[in-house]
Amino acid sequence: MNISPLTSPCGRITYRAEDHARHAIDRAMDMPMSVMSRIYMQYDSARIMQAARDLDADATRRAGPLAGLLISIKDLFDEAGQVTAAGSKILRAAAPAKADAPVVARLKAAGAVPCGRTTMSEFAYSGVGLNPHSGNPGNARDPSRISGGSSSGAAVSVALGLADVALGTDTGGSVRIPAALNGLAGFKPTQATVPLEGAFPLSQTFDSIGPLALRIATCAAVHGVLSGTAAPQQQPANRPLRLAVLQGPLMSGLDAQVTADFAAALTVLRAAGHEVIEAELPEIEGYGDVNRIVVATEAHAIHAHHLDGLKTQGDPRVLQRIMSATGFAASDYADKLAHRARAMAAFHTLAYGIDAFLLPTVPTVAPAIAEVDADFDRLNALMLRNPSLVNFLDGCAATVPMQRAQRLATGLMIFAPGGQDWQVLDIAQHCEALLQS
């Protein structure tokens, strides 16, 4: 076969976009329809192939930084001609989007090829990835366990080799949770760096947009396109780093594998010459209540016009979380935002002289789907606990795999105050390389 190569992010060489797309589609077609329907809300192989051919014929986009990269799109992003259902039944009858969301348009302009709309928790309102409408995609390493959410199908599409990267959203960990549980890298940027227009909202205070991929370098390349920014020439991982583990409730309740993997990761970092210290931030006390009240209040306002329909067609667990806003005091919302502002200021002060903070991304390996069904509230809160701290602080965070030979995946979260996105990405790449060596 006569093929011309494309150069993708990080210098990887691939075939023509058409050939690369065909190989991915062949993998998808080998999967049972019952599996594909839990990963994708919509998967149109003819549309994917046409997009790949269009790229091959476009010299400008072929020279783009993401040329030929197959990217799955979470079901809450507008794509021209596609219905933006946000994982719900009630929105499936909506008119197709008239234009691409800015982030989708940027990806296409950079040479990426959209390859299917992935399943998600309804309205992105859960960290476990269960959805009674589309079914549960299951973990890529053990289908009896959760994928994590809300970007559930997004993570599984990459972990199973159906896409090179996935476009997700992160309101309380919805990129980082499924990335960690499926052995992937993921990145949650500072909220203001990536435009939210054309993405169905959950919370205007906490929503952010980021990628999931096999390697954090791919996430960095995609973030550069999404944010329209570039990495500085000099990055801090070229010198000994000062890293801090945030003590307190976020280090409690870890299961045996996460405890062992995190301890091993810190040992590797120290052996590489980096200082790892302990730090405390008292101002985060009660952050879970802040997030719960702010998100529920904003979600209730978004969905107020179709609450009656959700009572008959919605996920009862999601509806319960939306309706919880009706029980809040009138002053709760403003009080919680003020608490958040104080904590953000304290975090910036604490971070002086510290290159990045470390935590396990999630406290446990992926629980069984049956276990989550039976104990949803507790386990959903547990999955969200660590990553949602970063949204509370309006920080930026990456997750990279920290398991070695273990079958189930765990993640190391590297985070910092808002505005330090490229520093976090660089440190995450350094950590990833050390942990995989």
Automatic annotation (TrEMBL):
Pfam families: Amidase (PF01425). It comes from the Bacteria. InterPro entries: Amidase (IPR000120), Amidase_CS (IPR020556), Amidase_dom (IPR023631), AS_sf (IPR036928). Residues 37-425 form the Amidase domain. PANTHER family: AMIDASE AMID-RELATED, TRANSAMIDASE. This is Amidase.
